[in-house]
Fold this protein.
Amino acid sequence: MAKAAQILSIAELKKKHGKRYSKSAEKIRSFEKAYFSIDEAIKAILETPAPKFDESLHIALRLGVDPKHSDQMVRGAVVLPHGTGKSATVVVFAKGEKIKEAEEAGALEVGGEELAQKILGGWTDFTSVVATPDMMPIVSKVARVLGPKGLMPNPKLGTVTMDLKSVIGELKKGRVEFRAEKAGIVHAPIGKRSLGAEKLLENLKMLLETVVRLKPSTSKGSYILSAYLSSAMGPSLMLDHQAILSTFSK
């Protein structure tokens, strides 16, 4: 993505993209940098023309892991200090006293079998799913719906828990879950433009620190092979991935 923005001429970009994207690419090119530090990249993106909505910034990391091997899977969650700028909607599978706990914590909907049937019927207007351990047999019935969307509750991510209040609170504050895809690529949002450079940088640092900390012991060679930062509607910037690794490995 970033390479394409650097190689194509502005005239060629205008043929492939709109005026705002082309202006953004031209602005990025004006910095005359092949690699950006994370703070330089955020500031550069914020200097590009903004769309009419408050777009998010995203990080993409290509890791030196093979997710086909379970001992090299990188998966985790982090609560961004300034949130993502997007309101989380959480549904919870629970029963008994845990229903009240989930409702008081701000869950959009709480239930069991009836909630599973509603989801199987096509309802997916939520961003996160949490379940108590005893409800997992019911949750398994909707795995084919939740799984492909990355919404299946998982004990390793803390979304299968008896502590519903804490987890729902984290999700609503800006908890971001991530996992390495087949090619070893991790995608994650770091917040909206409106947060400003300082808060976006703090969010990004927290996420990078978490990803680096989760490096599998079986991963050999370089852990971060490449890194890009982009806005939702703009070109991506190639980051200095070696600097990222050296900074957050300390």
Notes: The CA atoms of residues 64 and 79 lie 24 Å apart. The chain has two domains: 2-82+176-248, 90-173.
